[in-house]
DNA sequence: CAAAACGTTAAATTTTTTCTTAACAAAGTT
DNA sequence: AACTTTGTTAAGAAAAAATTTAACGTTTTG
């Protein structure tokens, strides 16, 4: 095991891993995670499973930090708790299928975007409609209300589309339109 | 103009707008913007155009803050500088078509994700391949290198798919699969 | 050409977020 | 039942980000 070739190999493997870990961690801000959480995820990506102490060891950070970061990663579906009998330590696994991560996160977020804004639009449209139909309000205000109403109404097309997109992802119909191309493109 | 009905209408319009502004601002964290920037965008959404002083006035914040936030919004394609002759003040308009905002932002981000990680993967695969083909390295390390190599190789399918997704959005082919449904769904 | 208007940069302050140490709670072991 | 082990919560410290005030450069105007 103290073969110099093996030693060199071990270093190179670590270097290669670190390069990808760095890269994943860097781009994961799109998923709303901090660099630390990104590094945790990316580290787990190369491991079968890890417990909190192993993460702490690997990243040189505190255990509560691991705990909270892992919880966040679980919430967005990038890490799963592995049920492990025997050991009291909780063990976790990274979602290694990036398609799943993508689907879980963006569906969650787009759904939130559509629901939150649709709700607000519905609330806002009510008084606007009242103004539009109120004989006592002067035309300039009616016109403004109508203008805003139209704007909001138009935006529903987008939020409906978002809902459809989410549905097509959840049902995986999207992959009929855009197949996972397994041919090597390098 | 000091008609009490008009006064009430004005208040209701403001309230309706604020509700939507709040909602948009809240969900815009998905686009990596701060609540302040989200509020700027959402405020502009209801206006034809605004200059920095009007934004400062409306949001009660400093002008440099407007300046930097607006620049950021421009970078992600949610705000455009309007060329306005006559006035020295720069005027800006919000991208009111949410489809465009969606397309601009996510294409930009997904492209970055794919490019950054693909680059790292290419760099990392080289030494891994060397190890795999090195006669002097013991089997256990070879096996580890092979395992990582396979993992990285597999992830390319996802990054290629991301590239395709970006392409289908930029070319608007996505809307053939998922049409913008303009029928009222409320 | 001096003064004003406008936008941006720089430096400093404030606020927010993240991380750590310490305390705690739950479950298991001896 | 006392003692470990493990994970989480709480409080405090450190780090990062956003915001503001001040200063600067450029352009326009009187």
What does this protein structure show overall?
The structure is a homodimer of 186-residue chains. By secondary structure, chain A is mainly alpha-helical. Chain A has two domains: 4-96, Orthogonal Bundle (Arc Repressor Mutant, subunit A); 99-177. In chain A, 68% of the residues lie in helices and 5% in strands. In chain A, strands 1-3-2 form a three-stranded antiparallel sheet. The longest helix of chain A has 35 residues, at 98-132. Chain A starts with a helix and ends in a 9-residue tail after the last helix. The first copy, chain A, binds a DNA duplex (30 and 30 nucleotides) through residues 34, 36, 51-53, 61-65, 67-69, 71, 88-90.
Q: Can you say what the CATH homologous superfamily of the largest domain in chain A is?
A: Winged helix-like DNA-binding domain superfamily/Winged helix DNA-binding domain
CATH class of the largest domain in chain A: Mainly Alpha
Number of strands of chain A: 3
The end-to-end distance of chain A, rounded to whole angstroms, is: 33 Å
Number of helical regions of chain A: 7
Oligomer: homodimer
CA-based shape of chain A: elongated
Unreliable residue stretches of chain A:
none
Helix content of chain A: 55-70%
The largest sheet of chain A is: 3 strands, antiparallel
Name the structural class of chain A: mainly alpha
In CATH, the architecture of the largest domain in chain A is: Orthogonal Bundle
Largest interface: A-B, 76 and 76 residues
Q: How is the largest sheet of chain A built, in terms of strand order?
A: 1-3-2
Taking all residues together, what is the mean pLDDT of chain A? 95
